[in-house]
What we know:
Largest sheet of chain B: 5 strands, parallel
Order of helices and strands of chain B: EHEHEHEHEH
Oligomer: heterodimer
Mean pLDDT of chain B: 91
Low-confidence stretches of chain B: none
Strand content of chain A: 15-25%
Helix content of chain A: 40-55%
Shape of chain A: elongated
Structural class of chain B: alpha/beta
Number of strands of chain A: 12
Strand content of chain B: 15-25%
Number of helices of chain A: 10
Shape of chain B: globular
Mean pLDDT of chain A: 86
Radius of gyration of chain A: 37 Å
Helix content of chain B: 40-55%
Number of strands of chain B: 5
Order of helices and strands of chain A: EHEHEHEHEHHEHEEHEEHHEE
Number of helices of chain B: 5
Amino acid sequence: MQPTLLAPARPIRVLLVDDDRTDVELVQRHLRVMPGYPAEVEVASNESEVFKRLESELSFDAVLLDYHLADTTGMLVFQRMRSQGFDIPVILLTDKGNEVLAVRCLQIGMSDYIPKCSANPNSLRRALMNAAEKAHLRKQLEEKQRRIELTLASLRARNDEIQSFYHTLSHELKTPLTASKEFVSILLDGLQGELNADQRESLERVHACCSQMTRLLNDILDATRLETGKLSVDPRKASAIAVADQALANCSTAAARAGVNLVLKAERTVGQAWFDPERILQVLTNLLHNAIKYSARGEEVALILSRKADSRELRVSVQDHGPGIAPEDQPRVFERLYQVKSSDTAIHGGLGIGLYLCREIVRLHGREIELESVPGQGSTFTFHLAIGDKQ
Amino acid sequence: MSFKILAVEDDPDINKTLKIRLQAAGYTVIQAEDGLQGLLSCLRHRPDLLLLDISLPAGDGFSIIERMREHHPETKDIPFVIFTASRRPELKARALELGAAAFIEKPFDSKELLRAIHDALQPTTA
């Protein structure tokens, strides 16, 4: 390859390391007459002189290093240079051609290799220019890598800021929400006087809205905790039926309002399983709310708990008979912030993090959530939980 | 004689709802708005139960319990319920470790809160 780097503005500074006076004079003479490439040469004849020169104020552009030195070899000197952080290009000089040595010196990171018998002003010039170019390209690459790392670090910091903002935001919203919900339930409980039927219905709606906001805020909080790796589960032996009942209770108001028939289909023998009841309750509540949202009036949404006779697994499904999900959308519905259609957000609302959270919470239990859906016939989300004392 | 509850919460609206709710349930309610006031109030009034927010000015809910334990051992048997807007499991773990009778997330369900208070006020048979 032809060197593309132009001759430098100042003479190239070379450290020549050789303990043979004749060779030193010969190479120095070649270096002095390199065409269009003036060089200043310093000489070192043993290892300690090499490091004395390198540590001095002089900065070298390249090192020409003899392989045979009285007290050591060029290879060892090179390795010590690198281990001490001197990354100047190094060209190895040898007495005669030796391909094994040539390959070895390139493998450990030297720039080039010249047998002394073929050293002349042109070959030295070419090797030095190549080495300078390689060093230049390496510096550029390092600079680019450094910039990429800086950009990455600043993006990470920005992401942390955003996550922390969301966390603070949802936390701050909870305080007025707590007061609103409680004032409404004080009225609903008749603590400040009797309500007529219309007032009661309006307040029940406000109460349901508060509950929905609570759920959305908790989803945001949990999604940001997931992003920062802080969301964890605490699996323990717990009653699947109790959690299923609670999930149904959480969704009963929404189901009633949507005219959807919410049912629990469970074999009462399902018993206890190994899971985090609060987190699985969150998953079931999310899946049921989703199913209700996509169901038409009069349709059924079922929470199904089943266990095969000899299985150590409890199967948990949420089934609806809504419009279903097109096959091409199915792999993406669990992605964060994914909505099936852009019009979807407008029609059905939601943040696009519910199913993402469901998948991640089930994954934290060491399982996967699966989706079966036929457009026009409905969707079924299924996951399994371990039965017994541990996963 | 009704049970005396000291609620330490810095939000005036939540404080108002607590007062209405707890009085309607037959409790006597004392309120404080920061950690220091909470501690002083607790020493002065000797409530039967503490209802504590975690994030408070002048000493969080945990520090009230810790300071009581350290300097006022005579208050160590007063049960306490923690209620907070945070979902961090480490806070729940810390609350239970300190001996909280219950850990309730805001926004709370008032039935759940009343049940937790009721249960915490039951004399232990141990």
